[in-house]
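Homework-ish question, so no full write-ups if that breaks the rules, but can someone show me the predicted structure for this set?
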Amino acid sequence: MNMNERFEAYIASDAKIEPKDWMPDAYRKTLIRQISQHAHSEVVGMLPEGNWVTRAPSLLRKSILLAKVQDEAGHGLYLYSACETLGVSRDDLIADLHSGKAKYSSIFNYPATSWADMGTVGWLVDGAAIMNQVPLCKTSYGPYARAMVRVCKEESFHQRQGFQILLALCNGTEAQKAMAQESLNRWWWPALMMFGPRDEDSQHTEESMRWRIKRFTNDELRQKFVDMTVPQAELLGLTIPDPDLKWNEERGHYDFGEIDWNEFHHVIRGNGPCNRERLEARRKAHEEGAWVRDAASAYAKKHARTDASSTHAA
Amino acid sequence: MANSAHLNYVLRLADDAVIQGQRLSEWCGHGPILEEDIALTNLALDCIGQARALYALAAERAGAGQTEDDFAYFRDEEAFRNHLMVELPKGDFGFTLMRQFLFGAFNWLRMEHLSGQTQDPELAAIATKAVKELRYHVEHARDWVVRLGDGTEESHRRVAESLAALWPYTGELFAPDSIDEWALQAGIGPDLNALHSRWTAIVEAALTEATLDLPSSTGWMQSGGKAGRHSEHLGYLLAEMQSLARKHPGVTW
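A: Not a homework solution, just the prediction itself:
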């Protein structure tokens, strides 16, 4: 057996790959792409929420939202660290985000224009993310799988807080309920797009499934998400904006309408309503923080020298 | 029911906390490194938590059926009694951290005193929790003041400018007014003169390590926040913070 065959057999036995193990370049590249994309999504995802922290309508909601944004920064951090175990640096990954070479979840290229969006983003966007991420707790790359266990625990709190925001709105005044419905109307389809292209159009699915990086296909997960979400929308008393949505007795699943794939591809290509401003916000934060990072390294260098010489003298 | 000086004393503490929390929240997602996004959000969260506990105490004592949110969302600028320093715009990262250090050290000493007094046990309980958080805030801010002061030429220049801009707002922290005097007499509040000496020692040590000069304390000092006379900045901060709540008064979120 050559290295590649041994690797494939090892993966097929459901064993975990660790940073020092041999792995094919393509496996390493796929993981770097996927984990860094995930890390970038956490970091960019802080922006639409940060946008509402300062306007949250009660101090309790403000606290919860702050805690959530803090978790997201934390997720970004573990995921960048997991990625660094594959031999890339956080600086390089961030440079790829800023140059537009690396992607992040397209969902954050849609604007969060109302308070209800903080509910919908938690409920649908974090809900879809959990659906994508729970299987990753068993993904074949050890550091990624372990990071995902913690991420998923926190994400499920995020989803619940989102649902609770909507529940409060839906039990509130007419204006509050209308706010919730308007928000669902905008986020439903982009949320379904989060599962990626249809299986037959997905260029990475087959290989990722074989390497046990991915454990379910895009369409399987999307269906699961729709089946889970419809009863929750009913509980809220909200209408899902899809005239083709109906229960299919024979399949035991909900049928649903066709995603606007044209929009999907355009947003990925950078033409979504917020692609430009999200990246600009990230670049600006990075550029404006350069003097701070420089100062921290200059200070560390000066004092490492002092500490080393004083140790030496002692 | 508490007397009005006592109630105002608690509200003043709460107002300092909520305005700091609001300013810190503006950094959400815009910090210089991811670790600082986490840290600044964490500080904001502590401040909002302290504000909630203090407003809830004030609401209970006011006895007019108010909630914590009534104080935060349904009062205008002149009713807020926070120190001017906390409402200044966030500035650059160095400005935010220098403020966090100068104000934080004051707030930490003040809360430490409040946690030890026995005349108002409910306030002491809130202060006891806050002291632990504030100690970390001061340490964190102090580390950055030192790093930035003793970092590069640019960071030194920037943080020295922030110090100079913030210094005239330090006077208000230690200038007692009638409410501070009431609190001192009642055995609740600290002696601000004594606090000032301890604060100066903490600040001087950090600035020396940061290779920054301690500004003169004889210059002109700004004041007014504690009496409800604010800068132009507070109105914008409140407009943003209160806009949604005020659009839908009386609802549940």
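Now go work out the reasoning yourself. Hint: Residues 87 and 193 of chain B are 24 Å apart (CA to CA).
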